[in-house]
Amino acid sequence: MTSEQVSGHGAPTGGGTGTLTGSAPPEEGYRRGLGSRQIQMIAIGGAIGTGLFLGAGKAITKAGPSLILAYALAGAVIYFIMRALGELLMYRPVSGSFSEYAREFLGPFFGFVTGWTYWLFWVVTGITEVTAAATYVQYWWPAVPQWVSALVFTLVLYGANLISVKLFGELEFWFSMIKVTAILGMILIGAGVLTLGFSDAGETASVTHLWADGGFFPKGLGGTLMTLQIVMFSFLAVELVGVTAGESVNPAKSLPRAVNTVPWRIALFYIGALTVILSVVSWTAFEPGTSPFVAAFARIGLPAGAAIVNFVVLTAALSSCNSGMYSTGRMLRDLALNGQGPKAFTRLTANGLPLLGTTFSAALMTAGVWINYQWPSKAFDYVVSFATISGMWAWVMILASHLRYRRAADQGRLPESTFKAPFAPYAGFVALGFIGLVVVLMGFDPDARVSLYGAPVWAAGLAVAYFTIKARNPDTFEGGPPR
């Protein structure tokens, strides 16, 4: 299949076409160093982070066993989003991904806003993850200041991202392998406790914990709904596979396969793991800020197991921060290539790495060190809400771009994708409505409400920047009307 190649400004480049399995557009200049094995694990690891390992502890206290249902509903929406992204990726696999699609189908302003907002998302997420990592270090060394650990992790991951994209892929592969192995181990051990009754928790472990301790909805339906922000944060980064498209060795094969793993990933790693944990230990035994995995191992009577899980969740946090280092440099370069960011960000190293963009982003991530110094106990809650609102914007743009693309393809104005999203366009409207519900619910949460105050300020700043750049250089945002 061929797809219309779009220039940096969203207009067709001389009517040329490019094959799906071919190289990235000439102006990208990246090395295609990510193999199918690495893409698969990046996709899996993207859905397993601090939202599950740390944030789930707070969500359990708010919703009880009904949190399982919240993850199931949100997981279905995430699948719709990823299938929409998959169809777009098979239409045109580029490293700019969401901002490129928004630029092409919604107009240059939305491409500009999406690129910079997704960059902000990963900067804030990097702060979130390094905050979580610093929290996990205190499990072994409580005397070490949280901000010191945050600084060390930021510097180490920054250095790792300056070597090669292949090293990034290998780090993510092994980070993800550790997370997957740990969750599978937790499920198997928990299943053993439930069926064989061994360990300290064997006498009390029972699936009746899912409904006996106040019912399946112990805090009511409202309590379940109020966890949706935490649940959606857990899934942020599943779309990272789209950013890797420009550096994937064989995007036509690896990307659809990665997208299609979403349902079983969610079913196993979220629904399966939480069902086992909440059956082994009653939801009333968990506390906010404590990993439910660590708490479950401690209750089972395997202190070494708790230490192992703490190590695993540490690697999960570092994995997400590593992904943030990777994606921010690419997003800044895409913006710069389209005249929507400083030209210095277009430069690549001899290894095909966006050095200046990565350096600039890493420097801003050191703000996490200051946050950990000022508010060590509240750092995670503060930054989660900012990450959630900015990350969900990327999902909205994916869905809106997909709706425009599907309409153009159905009318014969664009080539059909070989990886069509099911239930389109209705699934897209359902997903957009669900995201809208989450945003409304965030307004009722004092911690999450902070992001709703900050979002308009960020949007206003982007609008001023957009029109300023457009006034100085109108050609920067030239292109055809939205499709």
TrEMBL record:
<feature type="transmembrane region" description="Helical">
    <location>
        <begin position="450"/>
        <end position="469"/>
    </location>
</feature>
<keyword id="KW-0812">Transmembrane</keyword>
<feature type="transmembrane region" description="Helical">
    <location>
        <begin position="147"/>
        <end position="168"/>
    </location>
</feature>
<feature type="transmembrane region" description="Helical">
    <location>
        <begin position="66"/>
        <end position="85"/>
    </location>
</feature>
<feature type="transmembrane region" description="Helical">
    <location>
        <begin position="348"/>
        <end position="371"/>
    </location>
</feature>
<keyword id="KW-0813">Transport</keyword>
<keyword id="KW-0029">Amino-acid transport</keyword>
<feature type="transmembrane region" description="Helical">
    <location>
        <begin position="383"/>
        <end position="403"/>
    </location>
</feature>
<feature type="transmembrane region" description="Helical">
    <location>
        <begin position="266"/>
        <end position="286"/>
    </location>
</feature>
<protein>
    <submittedName>
        <fullName>Alanine glycine permease</fullName>
    </submittedName>
</protein>
<dbReference type="InterPro" id="IPR004841">
    <property type="entry name" value="AA-permease/SLC12A_dom"/>
</dbReference>
<comment type="similarity">
    <text>Belongs to the amino acid-polyamine-organocation (APC) superfamily. Amino acid transporter (AAT) (TC 2.A.3.1) family.</text>
</comment>
<feature type="domain" description="Amino acid permease/ SLC12A">
    <location>
        <begin position="39"/>
        <end position="466"/>
    </location>
</feature>
<feature type="transmembrane region" description="Helical">
    <location>
        <begin position="41"/>
        <end position="60"/>
    </location>
</feature>
<feature type="region of interest" description="Disordered">
    <location>
        <begin position="1"/>
        <end position="27"/>
    </location>
</feature>
<keyword id="KW-0472">Membrane</keyword>
<feature type="transmembrane region" description="Helical">
    <location>
        <begin position="105"/>
        <end position="127"/>
    </location>
</feature>
<keyword id="KW-1133">Transmembrane helix</keyword>
<feature type="transmembrane region" description="Helical">
    <location>
        <begin position="423"/>
        <end position="444"/>
    </location>
</feature>
<feature type="transmembrane region" description="Helical">
    <location>
        <begin position="306"/>
        <end position="327"/>
    </location>
</feature>
<feature type="transmembrane region" description="Helical">
    <location>
        <begin position="180"/>
        <end position="201"/>
    </location>
</feature>
<feature type="transmembrane region" description="Helical">
    <location>
        <begin position="221"/>
        <end position="245"/>
    </location>
</feature>
<dbReference type="InterPro" id="IPR004840">
    <property type="entry name" value="Amino_acid_permease_CS"/>
</dbReference>
<dbReference type="Pfam" id="PF00324">
    <property type="entry name" value="AA_permease"/>
</dbReference>
<keyword id="KW-1003">Cell membrane</keyword>
